[in-house]
């Protein structure tokens, strides 16, 4: 039994054009496969870097609070945001471009 839809002709591009399209699709597929490999490698690299950074810390270690501050550190009181010429900053006046 033949349907009406089966009687319509379906135009196909010439064979050289079909081969060109197939080559483009093969290249795109290869790029997707390469991307998956790179993402898997980056995932593995991230895990190995994390392991390298934290695997040497013993599980029973405790955090020791420093008794003295590093001389390059400074202790400051928390700043209250202030509105300066339509902008918020952290309590310090900044030089405005239009002053």
Features:
99 residues; mainly alpha; two-stranded antiparallel sheet; 1 helix; 2 strands; 40% helix; disordered C terminus
State the helicity in percent bands. 40-55%
Give the terminus-to-terminus CA distance. Answer: 86 Å
Shape: elongated
Structural class: mainly alpha
Q: Please write the string of helix (H) and strand (E) elements.
A: HEE
Q: Largest beta sheet, briefly? A: 2 strands, antiparallel
**Largest sheet, order of strands side by side?**
1-2
Number of strands: 2
Q: How would you portray this structure in words?
A:
- This protein has a two-stranded antiparallel ribbon.
- It is mostly helical.
- The radius of gyration is 33 Å and the shape is elongated.
- It has one helix at residues 15-54, and strands at residues 82-84, 87-89.
- The model is unreliable at 95-99 (pLDDT under 50).
- It has 1 helix and 2 strands; from the N terminus they run αββ.
- 40% of the residues lie in helices and 6% in strands.
């Amino acid at each position: 039994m033949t349907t009406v839809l089966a009687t319509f002709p379906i135009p196909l591009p010439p064979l050289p054009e079909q081969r060109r399209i197939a080559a483009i699709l093969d290249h795109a597929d290869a790029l997707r496969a390469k991307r998956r490999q790179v993402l898997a490698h980056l995932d593995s690299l991230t895990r190995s870097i994390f392991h390298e950074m934290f695997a040497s810390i013993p599980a029973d270690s405790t955090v020791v609070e420093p008794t003295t501050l590093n001389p390059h550190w400074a202790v400051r009181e928390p700043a209250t945001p202030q509105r300066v010429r339509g902008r918020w900053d952290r309590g310090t006046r900044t030089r405005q471009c239009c002053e």
